[in-house]
Amino acid sequence: LLQAAIDAGVHINASCGGTGVCGTCKVLIEKGKVETTRTEKLSEEEYEQGVRQACQSRVISDLTVYIPVESRLEKAIISREEKVAPEALATGWRFNPPLSKFFVELPPPTLKDNTSDLSRVLRGLKHQYHLSNMTVDFDVVRKLPQLLRDSHWKATVTTLVTAVKPRGAEKRRPRVINIEPGDTRGKYYSLAFDIGTTTVCGQLLDLNRGKAIAQGIDYNEQIKYGEDVITRIAYCQKPGGLKKLQQAVIATINGVINQLLTQTGVELKYIAHIVVAG
Ligand code: FES
User: Which InterPro entries match (predicted)?
Assistant: First the structure.
């Protein structure tokens, strides 16, 4: 029954991840039949009333189930965290994003100047911004020819300098991670996520202003597979368990991203970077 509820997107608390020992998944069977393994978590009286542990009940027929308030998510937790000021998480940090955007205007190719598109972009970055010794992501190279011609050789290049030197590299080199048509320097955003056991909190940052402009929060959907980390680790040992937990946290993150974009009207394509801690 617990699995059926999860599949249907209905939350029932399941602190022990469905092993039958916590008793947080109690529900009242109002109509229909289940086959239940009774544990000491269920009193005689509860059993008589039709209360069952969802994780210990096999569904035999169509059911009408009442989920008592103790078996639902505790809404108080999330409303308390919503009051955190958007800038609070960034307090004390110096604004110094690892990303930069550079607008380049390039001369179109001619018979005398027939260098490749990539060399043309790198040459533009060197002449206009004195940038050199850069690496370029393959995705960027792949879209260059069409993008440069469609945008009449005006484009915005996003570079990333990681805080840590990549393994095996001699030194940190700026890396071109994106190129966009036209001048998009005014639209320059990043996402920061904190993945907690109970809640996932995200901030949308305007990298031009150095400010968090929106904050979103939601319950970590992994909660339905266990309330604490140990139970979730145990759940990962089950066949397909790891994948389910991964999909649950991705769904939560995507939901929070949606909240942030809806709140601000920022388009997804202008999110240049995302940092996740957990
Ligand atoms: S007893 Fe059912 S989830 Fe713990």
Answer: 2Fe-2S_ferredoxin-like_sf, 2Fe-2S_ferredoxin-type, Beta-grasp_dom_sf, Corrinoid_activation_enz, Raco-like_middle, Raco-like_middle_sf, RACo_linker
